[in-house]
Write a structure and sequence with these properties.
It is built from 1 helix and 28 strands. It is mostly beta strands. The protein folds into 2 domains: 44-208, YVTN repeat-like/Quinoprotein amine dehydrogenase (Methylamine Dehydrogenase, Chain H), CATH 2.130.10.10; 232-332, 6 Propeller (Neuraminidase). The chain has a 5-stranded antiparallel β-sheet, with no helix packed on it. A 4-stranded antiparallel β-sheet has the order 1-2-3-4, with no helix packed on it. The N and C termini lie far apart (64 Å).
Length: 332
């Protein structure tokens, strides 16, 4: 039998069709917003650089990964960032440095480009859950189970100040408002505190609102709104800087570990124990829709700087991307 001779034009048409199929598959894969995988244990924290180009993730597998946001490729993996696990990661304002905190009671400073360790800040006596850069990048603030808040000078690599016993039973979360002139902290003592920064002078204490330990905070980009979430599932929205309560949300997620306010301050994402995420309006809070895809506890959520994406992660070891303007799943 003689081999069939392929018509040249037919060959060209086949190649074009094949190329179209490959292109179509790539577009579909992108449209599905496939999760990033690679961590071997729970993802406790994610952060996005100010220019929106990089994602950092910290995990109970002891590692930190730095990803290309657009391509979803891991650029750097720091395999043993903290003994016993990483609980918090945060970029400095220009995205050149990364701060992390972990179970080993240390705060570490990393070079983002190389993944090299620049300094270890020591002084806490128990697990750390938070490390945040001040908006000017001059300080790192940390807090955790030992109940103290510590302020570290990045340039000098020294301890600037300790806010002793800031929250009884432990510090749940930290955030900045007023362009870095005010620090907000919350804790397992069910209180929220406002501190002048960097002096550390206590301005006010908000108490008797949450009935359960407060474990999460979020702040709008313009600093005019803050939100606090607790183990019981409630979220309160506060007008800043005075701390007047302007909204209350009763969620179905339980244990509100993840909170993020959109850049325009109009929406808030809530995630927690049940694995689903809820998107609410901040004004006269109303549930818009739920996002379903995670199969375990959602520990962390952030908006991309341009507000187009919500990025989440948790105990299922996956980093997921959601189009912020899309109703991915209708509210049930």
């Amino acid at each position: 039998m003689q081999p069939e001779v392929m018509d040249p034009m037919k060959t060209i048409r086949c190649m074009i069709a094949l190329g179209f199929m490959i292109f179509s598959h790539a577009v579909c894969a992108q449209d599905e917003e496939l999760p990033l995988t690679g961590h071997q244990n729970h993802i406790q924290s994610i952060a996005i650089s100010g220019d929106g180009k990089l994602i950092a993730s910290g995990s109970s597998d002891y590692s930190i990964r730095i990803w290309n946001f657009k391509e979803g490729v891991a650029l750097t993996t720091i395999k043993r960032a903290h003994d016993k696990g990483v609980n918090s990661v945060c970029f400095n304002p220009d995205g050149t440095l990364l701060a992390s905190a972990g179970y080993d009671a240390t705060v570490k400073l990393w070079d983002v480009k190389t993944g090299g360790e620049l300094h270890v800040f020591e002084g806490h006596t128990n697990r750390l859950d938070n490390a945040v850069f001040s908006p000017d990048g001059k300080y790192i603030v940390s807090g955790g189970v030992d109940s103290h808040i510590k302020i570290w000078n990045v340039k000098k690599r020294t301890l600037e100040k300790t806010l002793e016993k800031a929250h009884e039973f432990g510090v749940g979360a930290l955030a900045f408002v007023k362009k870095g002139k005010m620090l907000i902290s919350c804790g397992f003592d069910k209180s929220i505190k406002h501190w002048a920064f960097p002096s550390g002078k206590l301005i006010r204490t908000l108490k008797d609102d949450h009935e359960d330990p407060i474990i999460s905070l979020a702040v709008s980009k313009n600093g005019k709104l803050a939100a606090s979430g607790c183990k019981g599932g409630k979220v309160f929205i506060w007008q800043m800087p005075r701390g007047r309560k302007v909204g209350e949300i009763t969620t179905d997620v339980d244990h509100v570990h993840a909170l993020a306010i959109g850049p325009r301050g109009k929406k808030i994402v809530v995630g927690g124990l049940r694995g689903s995420l809820e998107v609410w309006t901040t004004r006269k809070p109303k549930l818009i829709h739920t996002l379903k895809g995670h199969t375990d506890i959602v520990k962390t959520a952030v908006y991309s700087p341009d507000g187009k994406w919500i990025v989440t992660a948790g105990n299922d070891k996956e980093i997921r991307f959601w189009k912020a303007g899309a109703r991915t799943k209708s509210a049930e």
